[in-house]
Amino acid sequence: VEAVHLIADGKAPRIPQPKEGATYEGIQKKENAEISWDQSAAALHNWIRGHDKVPGAWATIDGQVVTFYGSSLLDASVPAGQELAIKGASRPGLVTKNGLVVFGNDGKMVLVRNLQFEDGKMIPASKYFSADETTALELTDEEKKMAEDIR
Predict the structure, then answer these.
(1) Any idea where the Formyl transferase C-terminal domain is (predicted)?
(2) CATH code: domain of residue 73
């Protein structure tokens, strides 16, 4: 009761909390989330997973910042895929049917499922090389009639 009265009267002591021993981490910033490629696959996975969704772990590919989402450790033989040069990585990544495979400095692999470009467009990592392809939507006669009715 005494503490409540001191607060109500504006006479309660104000002791700033010391920063030493504090466990709260401030809001992560995008510029601090760049992937350092000189790490083991487990460390890369934890970095990507730890920054998933905000702010998103990123690397530079083809001169563009690309954010990595949905990583998992891959314990298998090296899959077939198309090589993708990643700035700072000692070994190119592989775009496979399951996603983007990147390599740690221990030779082990991490599978990344989704990539997001600077313009906000997100794609499955497996579609990296086909991201620019567009397909035309073709309607059946019934759908064309329905579209006309809706108009």
Answers:
(1) 29-130
(2) 3.10.25.10
Q: How many CB atoms lie within 10 A of CB 30?
A: 14
How many domains does one find in the chain? 1
Peptide bond into 87 cis (omega under 30): no
pTM above 0.85, yes or no: no
Tally of CB atoms within 10 A around 5: 10
Q: Report how far residue 34's alpha carbon sits from residue 54's, in angstroms, rounded to the nearest whole number.
A: 13
Beta partners for 136? none
Q: What is the pLDDT of residue 43?
A: 96
Q: Looking at this protein, which amino acid is placed at residue 6? A: L
Whether residue 35 contacts residue 59, with contact meaning beta carbons closer than 8 Å, is answered with: yes
Show the domain range for 66.
Answer: 30-132
pLDDT tens-digit series, residues 26-76: 677 888 899 999 999 999 999 999 888 888 999 999 999 999 999 999 998
